Amino acid sequence: MLTVIGGLPATGKTTISAALARATRASYLRVDTIETTIVRDSELTHPLGPVGYAVAHSVAGEQLRLGLDVIVECVNALTVIRDGWLGLAEQAGVGLLEVELVCSDQAAHRRRVETRRVDIPDLPLPSWEKVQARIYEPWERDHLIVDTAVLAVDSAVATIQRAQTAHTGR
Question: Whose CA, among 23, 93, 117, 166, lies 20 to 30 Å from 110?
C-alpha cells in the first residue's frame, strides 16, 4: 500500500507520518528531507520545483516493487502531483490511501507555523504569510481528511490505520 500524507506546512504531517511509520513498520519518505539534501549537496537552491517529488516517486516505486508498504509525507499541493502518486500506485499494483491533514483552528495553525523549530538542518521554514499565499489546489477525488486541531497524534494515526485496513483488508 502507498499512503500519501499531505497538507499545508505545520498541520502535523511529520509528527503523524513518523508515528504511523513506527506503528506500521512501513517505509517512510519525507520530501522535505529529500529536497534539503539535494540543496545541501548540489548547486541547486530552494524551491526545487518537481525535483524532490521526482526522487520520492522513484524511491517509493522501488520500495513498492519490493513488496513494502510506503508512507510519503509531502505538501502535495497540486493535482498533478496527486495524480502522479495515483499513477505510481496503479503501476505498482498497490492500493493508494490519500490523506490530507488540515488544522481547522486558524489561530492554532498560525501559532504552529510561527513557533516551529527546524528539525532538518538548512530546511527553510515558511512564514505564516507564505503559508497563506501558497498555491494549494482543492482535492477533486475522495480522500481521508484528518483535522489535527481536534485529533491528537495517536487518534490521527489510529484513524489512518483504520483507513489503511479498509483499503487492504489487512
Answer: 23
